[in-house]
Amino acid sequence: MAKIKLKEGTIFNGDVLKVLSEKISPYTADLIFTSPPYNIGKDYGVYKDNLGFDTFFGWMREVLKGVSEKLKGLGFMVLNIPESVTVKGMKIPFAFEIQKILERFGELEYYGKIIWKKGVFSRAFVTEVDMKITSPPLYETFEVLLVYRKKPSSRNRALKCRQIEYSEFLTYANPVWEVTPDITRRYYHPAPFPLELPQRVIRHFTVKGETVLDPFMGIGTTLLAALIEGRKFIGIELNPVYVEHFLIDYETFKKHMTLKKSNLTLHHI
Ligand SMILES: C[S@@+](CC[C@H](N)C(=O)[O-])C[C@H]1O[C@@H](n2cnc3c(N)ncnc32)[C@H](O)[C@@H]1O
Q1: Fewest C-beta atoms under 10 Å: which of 12, 159, 163, 203?
Q2: What is the CATH classification number for the domain harbouring 170?
Q3: pLDDT 10s digits, 113-172
Q4: Ligand 1 midpoint to CA 238 (Å)
Q5: Which residues face 34 on adjacent strands?
Q6: Cα–Cα distance between 34 and 14 in angstroms, integer?
Q7: Cα–Cα distance between 112 and 64 in angstroms, integer?
Q8: Ligand 1 pocket at CB < 6 A
Q9: Which domain holds residue 223?
């Protein structure tokens, strides 16, 4: 396991369960934002994304338990996941299964759900055009962001006022978010989310100086958003190649941020 210390945060290149149990203290994060593997056979290089679903959800339970222990009281955990996945013709209600796990923890309370409307219809959704009335297709042109909040504990976040304008706050408070996926970065990773997604989550759920933890950081989109938004970050990733890509982006962003302070997106670099 490698630990990389940067000015604004720390990256761990290693297995999520090992890092969570050995390297990160409880009550460290104000926000957890992540997108876990979906167990649909994506090629992440060093990780097998095709476990049996019982094994997969058992592992997710361990990860979510470990990660929620790192959250301060009143901190938020926001999970970007699919509503459902279809594997070998079988539809799995993914978000429902994750909610069943989280509801049993006790120290987290359900806060709400954001629909991430991807604003695109891809032919990739069309696996079979079935005209029979008994099986009309429902294409998932959206994903969800499950929002849970940690109950008050001995170590709560400091209460501070939000730092965004009322109009921006209203956009985020309406929980259907239209954010276009960023296909340009799929060259480096099979499933990065667009920078705007973590930027919105970070701006809505935290204030400057707070700490954001992404236990499945991939190429570090959440961490770049945290950097831009003046938050601290902690990231965990198994694949060293993704960590290297993040470190290159990190340096580029830092350089551009000193030149141009506002409205930075990945398209500006
Ligand atoms: C859906 S991707 C996250 C993508 C990320 N949001 C981004 O924008 O780049 C999930 C990530 O989890 C990583 N991963 C899978 N198993 C892991 C494990 N046991 N420990 C740490 N990371 C793991 C994969 O390598 C993959 O990069």
Answers
A1: 159
A2: 3.40.50.150
A3: 999 999 766 655 555 566 677 778 788 899 999 999 999 988 999 888 888 999 999 999
A4: 7
A5: 79
A6: 16
A7: 17
A8: 15-16, 35, 37, 44, 47, 189, 191-193, 216, 218-219, 221, 236-239, 242
A9: 2-268
User: How many domains are contained in the chain?
Assistant: 1
Instruction: Report the alpha-carbon distance of residue 41 to residue 118 in Å, rounded.
Output: 21
Q: Please report the pLDDT score of residue 44 as a whole number.
A: 81
On whether the pTM is more than 0.90, the answer is yes
The two tokens of residue 52 are 């049996």
Tell me which of 49-53, 117-121, 165-169, 257-261 is least confident. 257-261
pLDDT tens sequence across 236-252: 999 999 999 999 999 99
Q: Which of 238, 243, 266 to mutate to test the pocket of ligand 1 (most atoms within 8 A of CB)?
A: 238
Polymer length of the chain: 269
Half-sphere exposure of 55 (CA within 13 A, CB side): 6
User: pLDDT at position 265, please?
Assistant: 52
